[in-house]
Specification:
With 587 residues, the chain is an alpha/beta fold. The protein folds into three domains: 2-153, no CATH class; 171-177 and 316-582, Purple Acid Phosphatase, chain A, domain 2, CATH 3.60.21; 209-306, OB fold (Dihydrolipoamide Acetyltransferase, E2P) (Beta Barrel). It is 32% helix and 19% strand. It contains 17 helices and 20 strands. It has a seven-stranded mixed β-sheet with strand order 3-20-19-10-11-12-13, with no helix packed on it. Helix 13 packs parallel to helix 14.
Amino acid sequence: MKTKISEQKHVILKKLVNSGINISPKMLECVLNLDNPMKNVNILIKETSFIPSFKSHLTETVVNEISNEELQKALKRALTKHLSLPLKEEAQNKINVSQNESIAENFKQEFAPMKLGQIVNPSLPEKIKHAIPKSSPVIKKPSEKKKKKNHESTVSAFAFKPVAKDYDFQIEILSDPTGRLYTNGGYDDFYELTLDKYNKLRNLMRKRPEASAATNINNIFRLSNSAEISTVGLVENVHQTKKGNFLLTLEDLTGKISVLIQNNSDNLEYINIIERTFNDQMLFVKGSYNPGEDGRKGIIFANYITKIDIPTDFEPNLSPDPLSIALISDTHIGSKEFEEYLFKRFLTFLNGKSSNKILRDNAAKIKYLVINGDLIDGIGIYPNQKEDLIISDIFKQFKKASELLSEIPDYIKVFYVSGNHEPVRNAIPRPAVPKKYCEELTNLGIKCLGNPSLIKTHNVNTLIYHGESMHDINRLIHDLDINKPIETMKEFLICRHLAPVFGEKTQIAPINNDLLVLDKIPDILHTGHIHINGMGKYRNVTLVNSGCFQAQTDFMRSFGIIPTPGIVPIIELDSLNYFQLDFKKID
């Protein structure tokens, strides 16, 4: 029986040490006293990898941060029991554990210790596993032959075998505005853009079952008596009356009509919608029409309002293959504040050179990388930018970028979408960066795309949009916050448009085809621009706002932006589970 317990301790120590976890004698005894300690130690290893503050030492404080409540309670019970042991029994435990500490020390010498990288905001599946060397740890000082063999074991333990290399690229560019952006900037162009937007959004709205019977506004005005009606239109104006009710003007191709939403307890759901509604959004309205008198036009007293939104039963596409996509933006190469050392840590990770096996396993699955705009800092983008530049030539900025990106393994396909710092027009949709600036990037096999673009990689659709209009939405909806980008991104999906309001800060090009309408629901929506990380889901759409690789500039400080540099979101294409790696905390 004692031999069996000793073997169990030995195996558990191997598991912990191989995972980069140091354990005290007291904590080891607590683990051994758990029901089914072998099963629980595997859970414990996984749980600690998710704790941001974990620094490889398993302590009582770490136990309090374990998310698995059942395991946490069991460990706390074991700790309490250990503290109540008689002195003789506790001393005997220390003697027994000291033998295991000796084993652990020898084991560490044979297998170089691996420092756990920081993993934040995870929703990782059960597939992350920790390798356990098959050979037993050596207690005696090894001979020269054994030293050589042990060295080979160490090399084998740290070998990098990228799974992604075994799969061919499966890529389809579903949408790219490049080459489709011709305009004269005249009145007709603006009219054609608005007309196309209206028709596309109306078609999307009419897919909702309740909106299929909606009538046009001109037909409503023909009614001479009160009637229950429903209609669809773009919001022209919305404001709150002196009595606290909400009055809006709805417009379609046949006319305009006023809609009143009473601010009472029966309409709380619709009041919440209206409070988050601004001009140019599409609404479906149902209610009672009251014809006007004495030459005045009638009005709709609404009892139901909705936006287009994402269907509640939307099911995203998944990849049949165990591959991942990494999403970054806003590196701003050429800026004095470019965090090059963090970016090089990211490149080290992509090449599988991390000392941590968990990180290597995750790097091994990365098949695609998206750079969502502002790869370089550009020239003359904002006042006094020259003072923030360390490379003040646009061609040299791209040369530096190509030198860095050339270190990415060739089995990883890189997509580069233009942002507002690239040498292209500022209005969106925006074309890809011209070849004369980024020829060295295209020679590396990097695919340059316009903004926004929709790509399919191994069956998963990713919509890439730099995110310029996020500032407008944050200004117009009072409870949105730049530090919570996911909430802003949800509004894109709810109103099914990437720049839903016209005439604010965001410059929108007057082309005859509105390429900013979300007529196809993406599996992943990726934005950047605001330099603040965020990840989440909305109705099964995975939302990512990648942060940046640039420290705070004076220009950012003037807008109150506190960036989150060096944090890289990664999504597993076969499950759409996601996590972020913080390269400020990964050696």
